[in-house]
Amino acid sequence: MRQSSYSKLLLLSLSLTILSCSTIGDKKASGTLITGATLINPGTNTEIIESSYLYFADNEIISYGSMAETTNLPVAVEVIDARGKYLIPGLTDGFATLNNQAYANAYLLKGITTVIEVDGYRRGPYYPNANPAPDIYRLEGVGEEPASDDDLIAKVDSIHQVGYKVLLMMYSLTPEQTKLVYDHAKSLGLATIGELGMTTYKEGMEIGLDAFVHTTRYSLDVAPRDMADAVAHAPFSNNLNSPKWTYYKYLTQLEEGNTALLEHAKNLAASNSYIMPTMSLSYLDLPEAQNPWDDPVAKILNPEDINRPADPTTGKHSIGAEEQEAYSNLIANETTVIEPTYYQAGAKYLSGSATDVWGTMPGISLHTELMLLHTKAGLSLEQVLAATTVNFSNAFGWKVGQLKPGFEADILILDKNPLEDLANFTAISQMFNNGIEINRDSLFLNYANHE
Asked: HSE (CB half, 13 Å, CA atoms) of 116?
């Protein structure tokens, strides 16, 4: 059947309308343009642009700058008027697990767009089917037990072949093996984090490890060497008479100005290695700790999923008085003496929550960690923001944590200024992960019965 003249004209009109929506002049519209917000690029010298524009397409930031200094803004399919708001990169949790969809939702609700995923043992299995989910960089360890050089290299190869991005180098590696494994990991493009024992942290710094994890672990260089060696051979015992707890009690007794502590702090500051304290592991053992189950995001989480969770009523651990006193004394000295000494010397920081061990919780505990970095270790709000964004790019070479061309389009639009109050980190108006807007309201659905 032949089309009528009216039908042809109607089709032509619709085609022109569609074309006009996708082009302006000679420019083809694509991507998303955010205008008018105060843009904050964290770093050693924080970049702040009032009345900015940010343009991204797919999962890449294309351009940004000042509205006042730009004569031709990019032509975008979507334009977001963000006047009065603030733009920052999505946050990173550098040591956490993802066990289920509720965990993924909790991370996103707290503005976390990247997670270094640590699974197995107490943290349970990785859940690969979460959708939506933060970007996942999976971590696997090597050197948990003594092994030959050939076996270590073979394990690194197998880790790389199945897609892991981060290598955790552990207690049983000798200094020679640490160098061997590090060089091979770097040849494969793997990031490296040290949780060392037989190798000192000073040796790890000299070898070039990208980062170290846990204050209680990377402080081993402060202890006498025989004590550190004993921990290296039995690093995970919870017995209060174990080598680990003998060392922890030693840390508890350290005083400001301790010679070994100052020397280690000086070494950390002079190195290119970053440190990830995970003080949030012991947050519940601080007397001023708030009940994490009171956080609105906690309602989508099930206490049964979490390793040694806080009691939902009291917000505390249900453990014996002796064990509780030991943990409380440890975190007290960790937050008032040890970590402030490292910070004051000039150590460089990454943020990690250690979720979900010892009651740490997805999303919630990363913000606990940021609070402790600020109020206990002494980092400024600018430095805290850098620790959870751009420092991961600096440490590992990843294109995350900056609102600059070539970086991933992981973006938070905040209602309030994050450089004025740490609570404003979660004043999220809109968020994008991989250039895709996340419907934050939908993240609460289907989990309301976890009470």
From this structure: 31
For residue 437, report the phi and psi dihedrals to the nearest 5 degrees. Answer: -70, 135
The DSSP-derived string for 390-428 is: HHHHHHH--S-S--STTS---EEEESS-TTT-GGGGG-E
Q: How far apart are CA 431 and CA 113, in angstroms?
A: 9
Looking at every residue in the chain, the average pLDDT score rounds to 92
Q: CA angle, corner 287, sides to 285 and 290, nearest 5?
A: 85
What's the pLDDT tens digit per position in 73-102?
999 999 999 999 999 999 999 999 999 999
Domains defined for the chain, CATH in brackets: 90-397 (3.20.20.140)
What the block records as the tokens of 321 is 């008085």
Give CA–CA dist 438/442, Å, rounded. 9
From CA 64, how far away is CA 408, in angstroms rounded?
13
Among residues 276, 285, 142, 280, the alpha carbon closest in space to that of 218 is found at 276
Q: What is the DSSP letter of 123?
A: G
pTM (2 d.p.): 0.92
Exposure class string for 358-392: b at 16+ Cβ within 10 A, else e:
bbbbbbbbbbbbbbbbbebbebebbbbbbbbbbbb
How far is Cα 145 from Cα 149, in angstroms, rounded to an integer? 12
